UniProtKB/TrEMBL annotation:
Native organism taxonomy: Bacteria, Bacillati, Actinomycetota, Thermoleophilia, Solirubrobacterales
Molecular-function GO terms, alphabetical: methyltransferase activity
Name of this protein: Class I SAM-dependent methyltransferase
Keyword Ribosomal protein in record: no
Species of origin: Conexibacter stalactiti
Domain of life, source organism: Bacteria
UniProt-listed SUPFAM superfamilies: S-adenosyl-L-methionine-dependent methyltransferases
Length: 211
């Protein structure tokens, strides 16, 4: 699917309203996600910029992509408060506006659930990374428990959850998709954000290297 715009005005406002309380729990995971990074970073679907304050000072530049207009405006405000240089651009995951091998690091947090075609998004991230570049990810994924995975699949295929969640899907096997897109997954661990029974759990946090 080729997508040039994303417009989820209601989701965007609700997400922005609730990220303050979500951040109390997820902030420490964002810190872990971005720890030790350096060089040029591309961040996909940056939302309202909740990662920006967690980038270590060793990062030279972050180019953050956000296609949703309301969230992009909020991200631009967050960029001004960041301690590293952050530029916010309007772009969707399916066609990144960069040449091959421009970045040292790519960040995907809570976004591979929302892009229409995760394989294509990951191929684009792989393309714009230098060989050996790093993908850091923090994503919610399909449960390993068959009963819960069935419920997650039903929520996705019925369209109920994608409609409520700004295009979000809860049954994606994102770690497998990362491996299939030309990355070696170097570390990954499960974690829960919010109640473990929530359909948006489990989450995974990890790092993968472009082959
Ligand atoms: C749940 S929010 C997560 C925001 C942010 N990454 C974070 O960690 O808080 C999902 C984000 O994905 C973005 N998104 C949705 N479709 C997209 C697409 N096709 N390309 C890039 N970003 C997209 C949304 O606009 C939204 O900002």
């Amino acid at each position: 699917m080729n997508e040039t715009t994303v417009n989820h005005p209601v989701f965007a406002r609700i997400f922005d309203r609730f990220t303050g309380s979500l951040e109390k729990e997820i902030g420490a995971h964002r810190e872990e996600l971005l720890a030790g990074l350096s060089g040029r970073v591309v961040e996909l679907g940056a939302g309202n910029g909740m990662n920006f304050g967690h980038y270590p000072a060793t990062v030279a530049e972050v180019v953050a992509l956000e296609p949703e207009p309301y969230l992009r405006e909020r991200a631009e405000q967050a960029a001004q408060r960041a301690r590293v240089p952050v530029t916010v651009r309007d772009a969707t995951a399916d066609t990144l506006p960069f040449a091959d091998g421009e970045f040292d690091v790519a960040i995907a947090s809570l976004v591979l659930c929302s892009v229409p075609d995760p394989a294509r998004a990951l191929a684009e991230l792989r393309r714009v990374l230098k060989p050996g570049g790093e993908l850091r990810f923090l994503e919610h994924v399909r449960s390993a428990r068959p009963r819960k995975a069935r419920i997650q699949r039903r929520l996705d295929s019925s369209g109920i959850w994608p409609r409520l969640g700004g295009g979000c899907h809860c049954a994606r096997d994102t770690v497998a998709a990362i491996g299939a897109a030309g990355f070696d997954v170097e570390r990954v661990r499960d974690l829960d954000v919010g109640p473990s029974w929530a359909h948006t759990n489990p989450h995974v946090i990890g790092a993968a290297r472009a082959r």
